# Entry
Amino acid sequence: MPAGNWYRLDNAARVFAALASRRTTAVYRVAVALRGPVDAAMLQDALDTLMPRFPYFRVRLRRGLFWHYLEEIPGAPRVRTERRAPCRRMTRAEDGPWQLRVLVFGRRIAVECSHVLTDGAGALLFLRALLAGYLERLGVVVPHEDGTPRPGEEPHPEEAEDAYRRFYDPNVPPPPFGTRALRLRGTALPSDDCRVVHGVVPLAPLRELSGEHGVTLTELLASILLASVADAAGKDSGPIAVMTPVDLRGLYPSRTMRNFFLSVTASIDPRLGDYSSEEILRDVHHSVQGQVSAKSISRQIRRNVRAERNAFIRHIPLPLKVAVNRRLYMRRWGTRFTTVLSNLGRVELPPSLDEHVERFEVIPNPSAAHGIGCAVIGYGERVVITFASIVSGTGVERAFFTRLRRMGVTARIETNDADGSTVPPTGP
Amino acid sequence: MTYCSRCGVEVEERAEACPLCEAPIQRLDEPREDPARYPDVVATPDRQVRYLVWILSTAALSSLTLTLVTLDVVLNHRITWSLYPLVGAGVIWLLITLVVALARRPIFVIVGQAVATGGFLFLIDISDGHLHWFVPLALPIVAVVTAASLLVWLVARLSRRAPALIAAAVLFGCGAGSVAVDLLVSAYLGTPGMSWSFIVLGATVPLIVFLLYFHIRLGRRIHLGRILHR
# Structure
């Protein structure tokens, strides 16, 4: 909703702006690994040319009296060499005014983006546009028909809209409030640190497995994650819930490049007894399918936007809103799920770009409320499943990938914790 | 390809232990060249840094006071003048400890410093069994300095991206604090009125005016529509 050169925050961004801290950074990463080393100067040139195409990303976050807002600024962020842990909080000292950073390490181009700007789908489109611009500078012929935004194009006015407000219907009833879920415990890593574990798995056996059980790939992975958390937490733990964000662009006709997602939750309760894999898959499938519909999602939109439009809430000063939001998140909203599984789907590129790209990666934003999160992205015949954690111990990751192996899918594990300093010693 | 025999997952060629279970990786051949996927980052916990600062300060202050006390005792055969640096170092140590312990909460640091300094002055005044200057002089001065510090903290918190405004607030705190201290000391000495604080005001006021002008005129424009949007 642009007016002059500033933007109101969208509904989800208001929450993320309030929650952003050294642990709950609200910063996630989408990255692409190329087949050759990345030339930072050339990438900077591509970024400089591309930024005017995304005016709603050329912004700084400012504080108003009642709400945060985004103010347009000229220029583009500086491409930097990656030197520190991923998904760290955006800081003035390190990132200047920007809410997104572009990092290069070896063959990888990484875009780290604050949820204040956009969601995973928006950031992925930005990365694809940046990749196309970079490869064009290497002499690769990039076809223009795949819908990737191009430098010089006029952005569609809908791209900057707060789609939550557009599809808000005040007449639908609010959704039921979920029950409190298990919270994984662990010793916190130093603030500003984040342990990343990638599991690279072939797509074909995963597809085969989900086809066999008649579930989607997201439902399959959510089921394995639920079972893995149960393995790691023990039988007497409380209800375990996995929250899965849903890209609402598939349900509502919007071209917005801002946040436009809500979440569905799948859960099991180990106190009711042992669950077989089939039971979990069936429960997750029916539960998710029941929630992923415009009707069901409209109830969540109604709840969130109604709170934002409430006359009393609107007039609460920002510092108080931030304090209340943080407390509510840690005590109420954040306690309704144990962890997050975000699937960005399968990226398809024009054939001329394919030969230069090895794979895509996504790292979810760390959160103090649930400690560990999981994100998935596919490219070509491979899927990269990534866990990002801010607590020590790899119980969930180990349970997840060993379960996958028992199902016949072997993962290749890569980590940023090269010396294993955040993995406590395990028994024999 | 390299595997972890416990987890059954494939690991990076250069891995010496499994990233999931830390079991050593057994190899039958030499590892191939496998470029690192991430930079080697060793994060230092904030607590460790603060603890290091505290240890170094403690060591420096103890060695300094020990040297002075030893010198005093050797020369005078008892503690005489070294009592003053000893007590001073004790207060500095207390203040550093407060800052280190409450580094993430500046407001608590300011209030804690006020309580520690006030308590220290109170103990000195009452050391002969009676209160003399603590209530009319020391307590108001501590209160004034604390209020000035809180004002600077508040301005810095509300406008963290306006260095000119923060600098103006610091100067205002110094100027106003000096006037208050001057008035308090003069009143205590029985000669009410301002004296030396005129010089401080003369130095700070033009600078404050310049900084405010810089902030309002040359700094960012104020957009009330954005700031007040509801």
Observations:
- Chain A touches chain B through 52 residues (CB under 8 Å).
